[in-house]
Each structure stands twice: as C-alpha cells, then as structure tokens.
Specification:
The chain is mainly beta. The protein has two domains: 128 residues, Rossmann fold (3-Layer(aba) Sandwich); 256 residues, 6 Propeller (Neuraminidase), CATH 2.120.10.30. It has three helices and 33 strands. The strands form eight sheets. The chain has a five-stranded antiparallel sheet with strand order 1-12-11-10-33, with no helix packed on it. A hairpin with a 6-residue loop joins strand 22 and strand 23. Helix 1 packs across helix 3. The longest helix is centred in the middle third of the chain and has 17 residues. It is globular, with a radius of gyration of 22 Å.
Length: 424
C-alpha cells in the first residue's frame, strides 16, 4: 500500500524541510556547461551571515553558477548593503555587477536579510531587497535574491526559488514521490509505497500534485494536497488511468483513459467530476499537455502509424499533426510562454530531447539518452531523466543547449521529474 505525507507550507507557500528524514539522500547538482557569454558578477560575503543556519552568499553564488549564465567572482571580503563601494576596484577585477548584503537577527528570533545589486560599470544601484524570515527559510530568502539578480541582469524571471517533484526507486521495491528545492535541497517525501508511482504533475498554484499510483494493482490518478497530505481519486475508471496534466487555471486535468477500449485523451475536473472524452481516433492517444493559453492540448498519437505529436482544441475536435521528422516522437511539453515545444524523439538508434520553435518550426537537439522532459517555469531550462553509471538520474539543459547540469543522489534511481510553478 502506498502512503501519503503532508508537506508543510510556510511564508509565501514554499515547502519546509523540517519533516525530511535525515537518512534520505539529497539530490546534488553537477555543472557541465555554461552559456556562451557569461555575465561577470562578484558576490561578497554578507555581513553577520553567520547568525543564519545557511550562508546566504554561498547559496546565491551556487544558484548563479548553476544557471550557467554568470561567471561568479568570489569577492574575498565582507560587504554589507551600507558599505562604501569602490566601483573602480570592482571594475578592475572584471566584475560588471556586485552583490552585497547583511543578515540581522531580531528580538523575535526572525532574520532580516538585506541585499543590494550594484552596477560597477555605471557606478549605480540596480536593485535592493529586504526580507524578514524564520531561520528555517534562510535558503528561500537567498534563492529569492538570486532570482532578483537573474531577472535584473537578464530580463527573465529567475526560477531558483521554485520546487521540483520526482520519483525515486530504491531496492526495486520502494517508491517515493519526493519534492525538493530546484537545487535539490530541502527534500521532503510526499508519498511512498511498494507499488510504482509515476507521472507527477504540479498544479499551477503549486499547492497540489497529480500523479499515478499502482497501489490498487492498476494505474489510478490521484490529486494530493501538499499542505495537508490529503488526496483524492480523480480517475479510477475501468482499465488504465494515466498521464495527468493540469489546465493553466487549475480547474481541470487532461488524462489518458482506456475505459472505452483503447487509450484516448479525456478531460476531468480536479475533483474527479465531469469526465469528457476529448480525442477520438482508432489509434492510441496519450500524454496530453495543455498549451500555455489553455486553448489547445498537445498529445502523442499513433494514428498515422508510429507515435507523433498532435494538437487539438482544449474541448476536443479535429487534431493536426505537429512533428514530422523522425518516425517516433513522444512526450510533448510546452513552455510557459507558449513559444517552444519540447519532446523525445527516437533517431539514430537512441532517444534524444528536442525543442522546436513553434513559430518557425525550427528544431534543436538538446540532449541524448533523454526521457520525461519538464520545462522550468521561466521556460529557459528543461529537466529530464537519463541513464548513466547503471542508474537513472536527472539532468538539466538550457533551451539553447549550452548549459548542462546533472542531478545525482547517492542511493536509488531518480526519474519522472516535474518542475513546479512560480510561487506567489
């Protein structure tokens, strides 16, 4: 039998790690590639950051380095947001920007984390931020600062303060649905059991996860509240119930059901009511994904002979084929801005991750040996499952293919990644 656990929320809806069993392995990130034109940035140690349980400046540096977009320069000194800055010195050290800040403990035990982002070229201030948080939320405060830096210097919202969900398998019989920070820290177990758990999918507000569990000896779709741990059966129809995907407004899911004989795409309310058939073919239609505007559903179908990606209206109707190169294309995923389609294609004897600009139809091969892709909420990165060293792990690649990361753990296999949304 599979079991579920509450994943407590704090502050602005981000998950605490207090319930994490100390024996469970954290995911570690290895950086394998960088962007072509990195932004040189110096990060100073924050004044008095030793009062916090995590070193704020170290978390910020790790986030920026992991993105591949920045060349991080260790300032080698302590600078607060009120320190006098010698801009010429930092320019001479090759830094286009400088990060400074401080951490102060209040009488109520909370921490005030302050920071400034400075432009050393123009000798000016680019951004400033102050957050008051509980000590356990120190890493969250640091991730938010890194997000602000990323946005101010690239024009794109950062995704360091987001979460990821994935499934781990240990000893071929223990399955866990785990939730962690985007950097692999702060892991908590949302569900576990002896039967497979697959296809986790975040709700748009980040408070729920839909997934498929085989605990009843058949695939059943559940939606679990990550605050309380409570869950609800969304689809337990005759045959297979699989591949849940949320509508952008969080009110409905698209699922794959075989209740009428062969797998087709259906829509269902998030509470399990109002199941409607959306696709209608003599083949297998599966792996539905809503477009960013909620008006369309992309899905995999073998109606043309081999599996290809198709597109239909969100309420069903005629479908049009999207992929034409290669004879085996599966697992469509859409970026949050609706401009990019990612999928897995079998070509040259192996499975690879591809991305397509939907406006031009131009394709880019991003990674080999890939399955189960998932976009970051800012659309700049893709996480996917991959095999290496006899284990299945996770990897991340930027949509231009230049930045690569690998996420590993000391025990078990990791797969089925799903990158969570921006949190409010």
């Amino acid at each position: 039998m599979n079991k579920t656990l509450p994943v407590l929320l704090f502050c602005a809806g981000v998950f605490a790690a207090a319930a994490t069993p100390s024996t469970l392995a954290q995911v570690r990130v290895e950086i394998a590639g960088v962007a072509s034109n990195q932004i040189p940035i110096a990060v100073a140690a924050f004044a008095d950051e030793g009062v916090a349980p995590a070193q704020v400046s170290a978390v910020i540096k790790a986030d920026l380095e992991r993105s591949g977009v920045f060349k991080v320069i260790d300032a080698g000194t302590v600078l607060s947001e009120s320190s006098a800055i010698d801009y010429g010195l930092w320019k001479s050290r090759g830094a286009d920007a400088l990060v400074v800040g401080s951490v102060r403990r209040g009488g109520d035990g909370r921490l005030e984390v302050r920071y400034k982002l400075l432009d050393t070229i123009k000798s000016s201030e680019l951004s400033t931020m102050a957050n008051t948080v509980q000590p356990k939320s120190t890493r969250l405060a640091a991730h938010r600062i890194a997000d602000d830096i990323y946005e101010k210097l690239t024009g794109t919202r950062g995704a360091f303060a987001t979460r990821i969900a994935y499934v781990t398998m240990h000893n071929s019989r223990d399955y866990r649905l785990e939730v962690a920070d985007a950097d692999g820290e702060g892991m908590v177990v949302a569900a576990y059991g002896k039967e497979p758990i697959i296809s986790p999918a975040w709700s748009p507000d980040g408070t729920r996860v839909a997934y498929v569990s085989f605990e009843d000896r058949k695939p059943v779709v559940y939606v679990q509240n990550l605050v309380t741990g409570a869950r609800k059966v969304v689809s337990n129809e005759k045959g297979s119930n699989s591949a849940p995907a949320w509508s952008p407004d969080g009110t409905r899911l698209a699922v794959t059901l075989s209740k009428d004989g062969h797998s087709q795409v259906y829509g269902v309310n998030a509470d399990g009511s109002d199941i409607r058939r959306l696709s209608n073919s003599s083949g297998i239609d599966t792996e539905p994904q809503f477009s960013a505007d909620g008006q369309s559903i992309y899905f995999t179908s073998d109606r043309s002979g081999g599996p290809q990606i198709y597109k239909m209206g969100a309420n069903g109707g005629a479908a049009t084929r999207v992929t034409f190169k290669g004879s085996y294309n599966i697992s469509p995923r859409l970026s949050s801005d609706g401009k990019t389609l990612a999928w897995i294609s079998q070509r040259d004897g192996g499975f690879s991750l591809y991305a397509m600009d939907l406006a031009s139809g131009q394709e880019l091969r991003l990674a080999e040996g890939a399955t189960e892709p998932s976009f970051s909420p800012n659309g700049k990165y893709l996480m996917y499952a991959t095999k290496g060293g006899g284990r299945t792990g996770l990897a991340v690649v930027s949509v231009d293919g230049r930045v690569k990361q690998r996420l590993t753990t000391q025990a078990g296999n990791i797969r089925e990644p799903n990158w969570g949304p921006f949190m409010k």
